[in-house]
Design brief:
Order of helices and strands: EEEEHEHHEH
Mean pLDDT: 91
Largest sheet: 4 strands, antiparallel
Strand order of the largest sheet: 4-3-5-6
Radius of gyration: 14 Å
Strand content: 25-35%
Oligomer: single chain
Length: about 130
């Protein structure tokens, strides 16, 4: 059983036998934690639906399947900022060839857009940087 904690928020944690997540909405909460990958997708979709109330997130996801990340990317399409389009497209394509592959990521005090970028990078997407 592994303990999954949100970075900087040790009280936002959960013990999971395999995959799981712990996400804290900075600075005051709530904490969202669980061992069900589909619940992670639902929690992230709800955060994007209420993006005007979310300044930043700290979180960790362990062992989430590519298919779950793809479903999440599809679900947030109508709510996500435009700057996430390339990363969302990348995540959506995971279902085709890497749907059963598992990924882990961690982020600290990132905007919703930055969290999507972090999740895409955790799956191998190379993010070009401005010179």
């Amino acid at each position: 059983m592994a303990t999954i904690s949100s970075p900087g928020h040790p009280d936002c944690s959960i013990d999971c036998p395999g995959s799981g997540y712990a996400v804290f909405v900075d600075p005051y909460g709530p904490c969202m934690a669980g061992c069900d990958q589909d619940e992670f997708s639902t929690a992230m979709t709800n955060l994007f639906r209420n993006k005007d109330r979310v300044s930043s997130l700290s979180g960790r996801v362990v062992g989430v399947r590519g298919a779950v990340l793809a479903r999440m990317a599809l679900a947030i399409r109508g709510f996500a900022p435009d700057e996430t389009a390339d990363d969302r497209s990348w995540l959506e394509r995971l279902v085709i060839e890497r749907g059963d592959e598992r990924f882990s990521a961690e982020w600290r005090q990132q905007s919703l857009s930055e969290v999507i970028e972090t999740l895409a990078a955790a799956t191998g997407r190379q993010i070009p940087r401005a010179a």
